[in-house]
Design brief:
- The protein is α/β, with parallel strands linked by helices.
- The protein folds into 2 domains: about 170 residues, Lambda Exonuclease, Chain A; about 190 residues, 3-Layer(aba) Sandwich (Rossmann fold), CATH 3.40.50.
- It has 14 helices and 10 strands.
- Strand 5 and strand 6 form a beta hairpin.
- Helix 5 crosses helix 7 and helix 6 runs parallel beside helix 7.
- About 35% of the residues are buried.
């Protein structure tokens, strides 16, 4: 049985996805300031409560559809008392609004599903049903608010069944992508009939480094043809593993060089799809690229509309993914053209982007869940 490894944050999501793009959606990741507040609160809790433990690891395995999904995470805080309590710490500018959303959307908000997942794992492991609570901290003035969340095991398990079924389909799709890439790697050819001696040396160096699993920093003179000389062996190795390549540059202007190298490979029959991430400021429909559902109709109910119209599935069928493609899809379904680029990147073999988008690519699982 193949294992799929997932963090709780990727596991505990509404089925189907719902909500708007904003700071309180629960689909993003915390800031450095948020991490510092977490650590401070945990230290204060430990000093004030002898039975308090921070960063308590929990995991669980679920078998479904020929896969074993191992879900792991760490509880922010566990109060060991007569009735144990699990506490998650969340930071935001407006804690009143977040508290309102958590109380009224406790069956669908990702934060609530994460907290309930920890509660469910703890209940299965220890045989005790814990209390569940959020400790909200304002990043503006450090004001705090507690939000208690009810824990109905039966309702949670209804969601769990839907989520596991969804994960099976995602895992099957990932296997098909990997198989397609491995097959395409067998026929990937260098785009020029006679590589330069220096390109052959470069390719051999990269291939050797990848065989030995070494990190590489390579310097080569201008005019050598190093872009295609690097992309070719990197793509061949990545696709042979069923994976993809992320090509990062410091400037948008340097995207063109990578795009031209991919185009040369495609001209030789390479079955390689590529996507260049366009900066938010350049692809946004609004005058100001502010992701606020009250200001932007494309941010409003974005996740709901993407799920309802199967936008990701439509993008997966496109032979060419361009700036125009995302603008057209965004306009047609009134969804954010910037965000759907990351949905489309699931299906491509090469993602070309600026350095500052690398973290977003990794966080949004564009690399794919680890399947063994």
């Amino acid at each position: 049985m193949k294992k799929v490894y997932l963090p709780v944050t990727d596991f505990a999501l509404p089925v189907p996805r719902k909500g708007s793009i904003d700071a309180l959606s629960g689909f993003g990741r915390g800031t450095q300031l948020g991490l510092e507040i977490h650590q401070r609160v945990q230290q204060e809790r430990a000093e004030d409560h002898p039975g308090y433990e921070a960063e308590v690891a929990l995991s669980r395995e679920f078998e479904r559809g020929g896969f074993c999904f191992k879900v792991s995470g760490r509880i922010d805080g566990l109060f060991k008392k007569k009735t144990p309590k699990i506490e998650e710490i969340k930071t935001t500018f407006n804690i009143r609004e977040l508290a309102k959303r958590l109380r009224h959307g406790e069956d669908e908000h990702p934060y609530c599903l994460q907290l309930k997942t920890y509660g469910y794992f703890y209940w299965l492991q220890e045989g005790e049903r814990p209390e569940l609570s959020f400790h909200l901290v304002s990043t503006r003035n450090f004001e705090t608010e507690a939000v208690e969340i009810p824990f109905d095991v039966a309702r949670y398990e209804e969601w769990l069944e839907l989520r596991l079924d969804e994960l099976v389909e995602e895992a099957k799709a990932a296997e098909k992508r990997a198989a397609r890439r491995r097959k395409a790697a067998e026929n990937l050819k260098f785009p020029f009939p006679r590589p330069r001696p220096s390109q052959l040396e470069l390719i051999a160096t990269i291939e050797e480094g990848m065989r030995e699993k070494r990190r590489m920093l390579i310097q080569a003179p201008t005019g050598l043809g190093k872009t295609v000389g690097v992309l070719y062996p990197a793509l061949k190795e990545a696709m042979a593993r069923g994976q993809r390549v992320i090509y990062v540059t410091p400037k948008n202007s340097q995207h063109v060089v990578a795009e031209e190298a991919i185009a040369k490979l495609q001209d030789q029959g390479a079955k390689v799809k590529s996507l260049t991430i366009t900066a938010k400021s350049k692809i946004c429909f609004k005058n100001e690229p502010l992701c606020n559902p009250e200001y932007c109709e494309y941010a409003r109910d974005h996740y709901t509309k993407v799920a309802e119209h199967k936008v990701a599935e439509q993008l997966a069928k496109k032979r060419k993914l361009s700036f125009r493609t995302f603008k057209e899809i965004g306009k047609k379904y009134e969804v954010c053209p910037f965000e759907i680029q990351f949905d489309a990147a699931q299906e491509v073999e090469t993602v070309i982007c600026d350095y500052n988008y690398t973290n977003s690519i990794l966080v949004r699982s564009i690399i794919g869940h680890k399947i063994i």
